[in-house]
Write a structure and sequence with these properties.
By secondary structure, this protein is of the alpha/beta class. It has 10 helices and 13 strands. The protein is globular.
Length: 307
């Protein structure tokens, strides 16, 4: 039985167009005994956003002044809009209030921009994982996603294993970071990009063709970022249709080119990203990645855990 948790909702990105899913998620979480706060973030709307910039910024900056911190800060959904807020976030206040506290900031997709900015500016470890509407409000709940979410948030050391067709083998240690690849690349050349040495970079995306993914990885390489990584882990890359014109140019060929050109191991097929089944990963935690005969293991520690 899960312990009841306090969950504060934030909506720093797009308007929650699937209101039914969000309300379904609220009902489910409340039925389990969890206390939800800031529910008005679900229905706020300005143009395509979940409220005006100031309202969405306030969702984030208010965390620095709360007298009592929630256990979990959960993004309602992704979309677009977080990038507009990055230069107005109260990094000093958030660092003072949240660093080394047992609080879990969780989301993915567009939320990656805020997560990496917080990591760069404050050292705050957050969680790339499920969101309110798309995951907790799904018509068919993924037990895989839920079990990984609660395990990661409550365990100081987590081990994840999966099978992969990657031809690499070895053991790599470093800082686990990443998230949505398009959002990572949007931060190149800005103060919001973490300067990660010896990184284990985990990436995922949606609605991006293999050539766009390769182009973004080339940008990371030409910016000097890939040279500082020990390995890449690829999650789900969904909602893309290949055509006859591609003539065999698929994601597997992109990963192989990264191995060949940049001498980086690429461990694929982790259940992570926009699919229904996704693990929850702490961005900024210490990690060890091992791969032998198609069996991958990722262990991480040093992330906030709920009391």
């Amino acid at each position: 039985m899960l312990s009841p948790r306090s969950i504060r909702l934030i909506a720093p990105s797009g308007y929650c167009h699937n209101q039914d899913a969000a309300q379904r998620a609220v009902s489910r979480l409340q039925a389990q005994g969890h206390q939800l706060d800031n529910l008005s973030a679900i229905t706020r709307r300005f143009q395509r956003f979940a409220g005006e910039d100031g309202e969405r910024l306030n969702d984030v900056n208010q965390l620095a002044t709360l007298s009592t911190l929630p256990d979990i800060v959960l993004a309602v959904r992704g979309g677009y809009g977080a990038s507009r807020l990055l230069d107005q976030i109260d990094y000093v206040g958030l660092q003072r209030r949240l660093l080394n506290q047992p609080i879990a900031l969780c989301g993915h997709s567009d939320f990656t921009a805020i997560q990496l900015a917080l990591l760069a500016q404050t050292g705050l470890v957050s969680f790339s994982g499920p969101m309110l509407a798309g995951n907790f409000g799904a018509e068919a709940l993924s037990e895989f996603t839920l079990s990984h979410f609660w395990q990661t948030l409550s365990s100081p050391t987590v081990n994840i294993g999966w099978q992969t067709h990657s031809p690499d083998a070895g053991r790599w240690q470093g800082t686990l970071w990443g998230g949505n690849l398009a959002m990572i690349c949007s931060l190149i050349g800005t103060p919001w990009m973490p300067q990660i040495e010896n990184g284990i970079l985990v990436i995922e995306d949606v609605n991006e063709h293999p050539f766009r993914i390769e182009r973004m990885l080339i940008q990371l390489q030409q910016s000097g970022i890939l040279a500082r990584q020990r390995a890449i882990i690829t999650g789900s890359f969904t909602s893309t249709s290949l055509s006859a014109y591609d003539n065999g140019f698929d994601f597997a060929s992109v990963w192989q080119r990264i191995r060949d050109e940049y001498q980086l191991p690429v461990i694929s097929e982790l259940a992570f990203g926009h699919d229904a089944d996704t693990v929850t990963l702490p961005l900024g935690a210490s990690a060890t990645l091992q791969l032998e005969q198609g069996e991958a293991q990722l262990a991480f520690t040093g992330h906030p855990t709920l009391r």
